[in-house]
Specification:
- The structure is a single chain.
- This protein is α+β, with helices and mostly antiparallel strands.
- The protein has 2 domains: about 210 residues, no CATH class; about 70 residues, OB fold (Dihydrolipoamide Acetyltransferase, E2P) (Beta Barrel).
- Helix content is about 45%, strand content about 15%.
- The strands form 2 sheets. Strands 1, 2, 3, 4, 5, 6 and 7 form a 7-stranded mixed beta sheet that branches.
- A hairpin with a 5-residue loop joins strand 8 and strand 9.
- Helix 3 crosses helix 7 and helix 6 packs across helix 7.
Length: about 300
């Protein structure tokens, strides 16, 4: 069976853009080591924070919503202004995998698709955005932590534009970008301090695995549309190599926290509902950990 469509917004990890494809635990400009998944459909009705959507046919290939035609979405966490949403609108909605069986489905955000805009259009825009920053030479510093980590103004600008592309308003996008970049750097600094390094061979193995995932994915043509914006596939993978010098130590560190947390928690669970609550609690725990790491870095902000 083809692999699921996975939405992961990973700063500078170009492939994982609007409709990226990834198998391993990673983040979508967020703090937990958990995927955001995406699906699409047409809005049938809106009642306060509850949206009913008719799922696109592509979703029939996915295990989460097999044989499901319509689905209720709980949009209380969405940043999108629901009063601006209209029936008949096509949307992409994003959710955590541990909520896949929850009804109404708890979603984290929605993206309204222009009638003339296809999924490939969106991934091309994401690729254009990332590629446009490759040659920018502005290395002015936005923030510096006490461990020596540096976040550039270019990093913040790129992340902000990416959040806007994902459907966030300008002010929210800026806040999300700053929060993500600070947490990413703080977590990387802790990962390195804790001994979670990565070798060139590990990175190459990871990227080889990622290439297979792309080829086997339902929407591989969308990923290829994104990669093509780099001018050459080689250029894209060279870029990804540099990205995962940072991302993989973070993944290793977060995975160690996850295993320790779940070991101490799941053994006490007696049913699936409690197990689901444990995963939700874990994500809150990771957010608290990363917020504390940011505080410990005592970032100096240069504006």
């Amino acid at each position: 069976m083809k692999k699921k469509i996975i939405y992961v917004l990973c700063i500078l990890g170009v492939l994982l853009a609007l409709l990226g494809l990834k198998k391993r635990n990673d983040t979508m400009y967020s703090s937990g080591g958990v995927y955001h998944l995406n699906r699409s459909g047409i809005v049938e009705s809106i009642d306060k924070n509850i949206i009913v959507v008719h799922l696109d046919k592509l979703n029939e290939q996915d295990e989460d919503f097999k044989n499901v035609n319509t689905l209720q979405l709980d949009c209380r966490n969405c940043s999108y202004e629901l009063e601006n949403l209209k029936e008949g609108t096509k949307i992409i909605f994003y959710y955590f995998p541990y909520n896949a069986d929850v009804r109404p489905l708890k979603v984290e955000n929605i993206y309204v698709i222009n009638e003339k805009e296809s999924n490939i259009d969106l991934t091309e825009k994401a690729g254009q955005l990332f590629n446009s920053y490759r040659d920018k030479t502005d290395e002015s510093i936005y923030a510096r932590g006490k461990s020596g980590g540096v976040i550039t103004t270019k990093d913040i600008e790129q992340a902000t534009e990416f959040y806007i592309l994902a459907g966030y308003e300008q002010s929210d996008a800026e806040d999300k970008a700053v929060e993500y970049m600070l947490r990413r750097d703080a977590t990387y600094q802790r990962a390195i301090a804790a001994g979670y390094s990565v070798s060139d061979d590990e990175i190459n193995d990871y990227l080889d695995d990622l290439k297979v995932t792309i080829n086997d994915s339902i929407n591989s043509e969308e990923a290829q549309a994104l990669i093509s914006q780099f001018g050459s596939e080689e250029g894209y993978w060279q870029h990804e190599f540099e990205v995962y010098k940072i991302n993989l130590p973070i993944e290793k560190y977060l995975e160690s926290l996850k295993q320790e947390y779940l070991k101490n928690s799941i053994s006490t669970q007696s049913n699936n509902q409690e197990a689901e609550e444990t995963i939700e609690n874990y994500n809150r725990y990771i957010e608290e950990v990363q917020s504390e790491l940011v505080k410990q870095e005592q970032y100096e902000i240069f504006k």
